[in-house]
């Protein structure tokens, strides 16, 4: 069975406007009914976001501390290597100085022995 009534443009527009108003009213009613639930979800999201920010701040702080510790350890290792190299250099220089001192002493002893022999030979010749 057809709807025999002829609808004019104005009536169709009015019907559409009423339908839109009814949909909007239904949406607002559903929205208001879900409002406490929505507020709870919103608060939960805000709490999660705050926790996330705290975690990121803690992570960043730990990264900075780790970087500082790594730099300090690298600096300490470098200082230890420099100290070790300096100690090796000092030991080599000390060994070289000791060797030179022994050579000078040996040379002085040979010269003294040569002078003694020379003096003994001169004493025998006279």
Structure description:
- With 126 residues, the protein is mainly α.
- It has one domain (9-125).
- 92% of the residues lie in helices and 0% in strands.
- The protein has helices at residues 9-33, 35-125.
- It starts with 8 loop residues before the first helix and ends with a helix.
- The relative contact order is 0.03.
Secondary structure elements and pairings:
Blueprint: H1 9-33, H2 35-125
Features:
126 residues; mainly alpha; 2 helices; rod-shaped
The assembly state of the depicted protein chains is single chain
> How many helical stretches?
2
The Rg value, from CA coordinates, equals: 51 Å
Overall helicity: over 70%
Largest sheet: none
Q: Write the H/E string, N to C.
A: HH
Terminal residue distance: 167 Å
Brief summary:
The chain has 126 residues and is an all-alpha fold.
């Amino acid at each position: 069975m057809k709807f025999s009534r002829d609808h004019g443009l104005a009536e169709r527009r009015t019907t559409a406007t009423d339908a839109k108003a009814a949909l909007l009213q239904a949406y607002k009613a559903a929205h208001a009914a879900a409002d406490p639930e929505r507020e709870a979800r919103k608060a939960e999201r805000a709490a999660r976001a705050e926790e996330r920010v705290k975690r990121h701040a803690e992570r960043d702080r730990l990264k900075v501390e780790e970087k500082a510790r790594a730099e300090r350890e690298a600096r300490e290792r470098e200082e230890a290597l420099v100290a070790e190299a300096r100690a090796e250099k000092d030991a080599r220089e000390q060994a070289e100085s000791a060797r030179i001192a022994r050579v000078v002493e040996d040379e002085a002893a040979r010269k003294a022995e040569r002078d003694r022999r020379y003096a003994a030979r001169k004493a025998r010749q006279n």
